[in-house]
Design brief:
The complex is a heterodimer.
Chain A (H helix, E strand, L loop, with lengths): L7 H10 L23 H15 L5 H13 L4 H11 L1 H9 L1 H5 L10 E6 L4 E6 L8 H4 L4 H4 L1 H6 L4 H7 L9 E6 L4 E6 L11 H7 L2 H5 L9
Parallel strand pairs in A: 1-4, 2-3
Chain B lengths: L24 E4 L18 E11 L2 H4 L9 E9 H4 L10 E7 L3 E3 L8
Antiparallel strand pairs in B: 1-2, 1-5, 2-3, 3-4
Classes of the chains: A alpha/beta, B mainly beta.
Chain lengths: ~230, ~120
Amino acid sequence: MTDTKFDYYAQKKHAHDHGDHDHAADAHAAIEEPREGPPSEFEIMSRAMQELLEAKGVITAEQVRARMEQFEEDLPYRGSRVVARAWVDPDFKQRLLADGKAACTEFGIDLEADRLIAVENTPEVHNVIVCTLCSCYPRSLLGMPPTWYKSRNYRSRVVFEPRAVLREFGTVLPDNVTVRVHDSNADMRYVVIPMRPAGTEGWDEEKLAELLTRDTLVGVTTPGVAR
Amino acid sequence: MSAATSTLPSTYTPAPGHRYKVGDAVVIKRAFPPGHRRTPYYIRGKQGVIERICGSFPNPEELAYGFDGEPKKILYRVRFAQNHVWPGYAGPAHDIIEMEIFEHWLLPAGNAAAKG
C-alpha cells in the first residue's frame, strides 16, 4: 500500500514528515496502539470514517487528537472535583442534586449533550449505576467507561443481584441499607455522591477529590481513609 | 427511602403536557415491537411509580433510523421494587431499581391489562 490517501499509517507518517508541529514542545507521550496485530473490522471502519470526514473537511486529525487527549487527561478528573465540592459546600450539593448539568457549569464544565442526575448515598441508601442496554456512562464527567462497566457480566447481573456484585467489588452492605440501582437506559447520565468518610474533617477539596475514584462515583465501591 | 419521596423539580428540559406526575403508579407496556427501543425487556409489564419527570427528548426509536426524533417524547424516571421486578430477588424488600421510560410506554396502573 503506497497511496497515502488510503493508508492510515502511511498518512500519519506522511503528516509527521512535514514537521508541522514541534515534538520538543509536546510534553505528552505518543498515542499508542492498544494492541499489536492487524486492525479489527471496527477499527478499519472507524479509520475509514475518520478519513472520509477529514477528506470532506468536517473534522481535522488535530481535532481528533485533541479530543483523545481530553478524554485521557481532563474528563476522568472532572467528576471527583465536582463531588468534592458537594462534600464541602451543602448549597452546591443541593444545586448538583437539583440539576447536575447546570451545577457543573459553575466549574466551567460543559457536559455537552449529557443531562446529569446526581444521586446521593446516605446511611439509608446506596446508589449504583449501570446501563443494561449498552454502556451509557457520564463520559464528559468520568472519561471512558472501564471494561467491566461494559461487560455483559456486570450489566446483566447488577440489576438483579446488586448486592452480590457489590460484594465482589468489596462493598458489603447491611440489609437495612436500601440498594438503589439506576439503569442508565436513555437520555440521562448519572453520578453517585458517596458519603464523606470519617477522618476527613478539615481536608480541602483537592485532597478530598483524591478519595473520589471512578468506582466510587459509579457506586461499586465507597471511599475510605486508611487508618 | 419509600417510593415517591423524591420531589426534585423537573429542571432538565421542559415537559409540556406530560400525562403523569411524580408519585403516579404506572405500568410499563408489555409489548414487543421490533426496532430500536430503550425500554429494557425485563421491565415490560412491571408496575412502578414516577420518580421524576426528566423533560422531553427526541424519540430514540426514530433517531435510530436517521429520522429527526420529532415530535419529542416526554421522558420519566420510574422506580420499581426489586422483588416485584425479579421474582425470587435475594435482597431485602426495600431494594429498588429505577430507569428512564418514555411516556408512550406507560399506562396508568389499575389499567390491569398492561397491553401494548
